[in-house]
Design goal:
The structure is a single chain. The protein is rod-shaped. 30% of the residues lie in helices and 55% in strands. Strand 2 and strand 3 form a beta hairpin. The chain contains three helices and four strands. With 166 residues, the chain is of the alpha+beta class. It has a domain of 44 residues. The longest helix is centred in the middle third of the chain and has 19 residues.
Length: 166
């Protein structure tokens, strides 16, 4: 009799725990994601039109240009020498210089397409699965947990059930 009273007292004082392992059926799976930013390298090319320079012939010298050169040359030749022969030589040289002045110029004669390429970094968001929230049922009891395992709906998974009496 003392043994029975001692067992009842100990049972009342220390909670009794019962454990059982059974299987629950998965009813829903929701993946949880984490997001991170990364940069992807990409080659980017474009075309630039580069000018091509060359000498071009201009229109011929007008009579007015030659006459002005001759007049200026004769005045300078006469002033430098004080003689008519100096004026004549100055007129001839002035006409030649005026005629050569407008003969050629350097200018853009066309464009050459030049292709340039460079490496650029394009930002992108990377989506990674962090874990899964699974909903399951065991009899009439519904539960949910987070897991790193890949399950599928309808799969049976082991669960632990604990009952603690106080």
């Amino acid at each position: 009799m003392i043994k029975k009273v001692l067992v009842i007292c100990l049972t009342a004082y220390f909670p009794v725990t019962a454990n059982a392992e059974t299987y629950a059926k998965i009813t829903k799976i929701t993946p949880n994601y984490t997001y991170s930013k990364a940069y992807k390298k990409e080659k980017s090319c474009y075309t630039v039109d580069t000018p091509i320079y060359g000498k071009t012939l201009n229109r011929g010298t007008t009579g007015g240009d030659v006459f002005a050169g001759m007049l200026l040359g004769s005045l300078l030749g006469k002033g430098a020498t004080g003689k008519d022969k100096g004026a004549a030589v100055g007129a001839v040289l002035g006409g030649i210089i005026a005629a050569e002045k407008n003969n050629t110029t350097t200018s853009i004669i066309g464009y050459e397409p030049i292709r340039n390429c460079e490496i650029i970094q394009i930002p992108e968001t990377i989506e990674t699965i962090k874990n899964y929230k699974i909903d399951y049922e065991w009899g009439d009891v519904m539960g949910s947990s987070y897991t790193y395992n890949r399950y599928h709906v309808g799969q049976h998974i082991p669960i632990s059930i604990s009952i603690i009496a106080n």
